[in-house]
Design a protein that fits this description.
Interleukin_8-like_sf, OB fold (Dihydrolipoamide Acetyltransferase, E2P), Chemokine_IL8-like_dom, Chemokine interleukin-8-like domain-containing protein, alpha+beta, two-stranded antiparallel ribbon, about 130 residues, cytokine
Length: about 130
């Protein structure tokens, strides 16, 4: 009888360990190791995502997905920009306006209403003309 008790206990421990190993892991660090303080050309940006500060990354991360494709990986290039430059501030305003419910992972630039030669007014900053 003790063998059956030990076998059931062992089986229970194995099942619990397997279920625990399937749990989602939390990112240990920021996705952007470095950020650029130089703006990207608006016409080269396909979409972007913004990640708010969290417990393991204290920075707001803005990740641009560019229209150009990396020849080695055959994937679209990604670039991190600083949230403090004018482009970062504008993208944060667009993100907050469009992604109110927080369900979108990325936003297309066309959703922000940016055309190729627009002038953008950012609150509490200067007007910037886009090329």
């Amino acid at each position: 009888m003790t063998f059956l008790t030990h076998a059931v206990s062992f089986l229970l421990v194995v099942v619990l360990c397997l279920q625990h190993s399937d749990a989602q892991s939390v990112a240990d660090r920021c996705r952007c190791q470095t950020t650029s303080s130089k703006a990207s050309r608006w016409k080269n940006i396909d979409e972007f995502s913004i990640t708010a500060p969290r417990s393991r990354c204290k920075a707001t991360e803005i990740i641009l997905t560019l229209k150009t494709v990396n020849a080695k990986t055959n994937e679209k290039e990604r670039r991190c920009i600083s949230p403090n430059i004018y482009q970062g501030e504008y993208l944060q305003q667009c993100w907050n306006r469009i992604n109110k419910d927080g369900k979108k992972a990325t936003i297309k630039m066309s959703e922000c209403g940016i055309s190729r030669n627009t002038t953008i007014k950012i609150e509490n900053t200067t007007t910037v003309s886009q090329q």
